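Weekly modeling sync, notes
Attendees: AB, CL, MP (scribe)

Item 1: holo prediction request
CL wants a bound-state model with PRP before deciding which constructs to order. AB pointed out that an apo prediction alone won't tell us much about the pocket. Agreed to run with the ligand included and paste results into these notes for async review.

Input as submitted:
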Amino acid sequence: MPALDSTIMLSEKTIQARVREMARRISEDYADVDELFMIGVLRGCYIFMADLSRALSIPRHIDFIALSSYGKGTVSGAVRLIMDVRIDISRRHVLIVEDIVDTGHTLDYLLRLFRARNPASLKTCSLLRKSGSAQVDVPVDYLGFEIPDVWIVGYGLDCGDKYRALPYIAQISPQKKQRT
Ligand code: PRP
């Protein structure tokens, strides 16, 4: 792992405590449901999804979807489907699992995509949401942390595909972002 000059924003302990809290709330809310269908948005969600799904005390099914955003950082924010889920989500209770909501375009796309498939219910969960960067207003039913609009890495989030495996979330300097 290359050295990273950065500031820790959320420690491993803080993240783990919050993930357990989120899992407890989700488990309570879905206590009467046969099975919760968790759909993770690759790739950033993979660590959060692993920890959250293991902390639940209810039956759950895990699936993933992969998207690519053409217009990252632009107002259009066009999103393209790269890999769809394997399951038929009609009449299922679906929870979309994201690592971060930034402009909101990805989650907005997914909500429209999945609503058209007639799930029994559809909710969203994100570990992080950046404040002040939304271009589309999307609901986040289960939110871990509201964070400022800065570059961050770790716990699944990358910079040039590095640092995803860090157990904490760190703010990275703009200079560092440009170098990678
Ligand atoms: C990140 C993140 C979300 C999306 C949110 O994915 O995982 O899926 O951006 O951004 P938005 O709210 O502006 O749409 P990214 O495109 O960086 O890909 P990755 O998960 O593979 O790192």
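Recorded for review: The radius of gyration is 16 Å.
Action items: CL to compare against the apo run; MP to circulate these notes.
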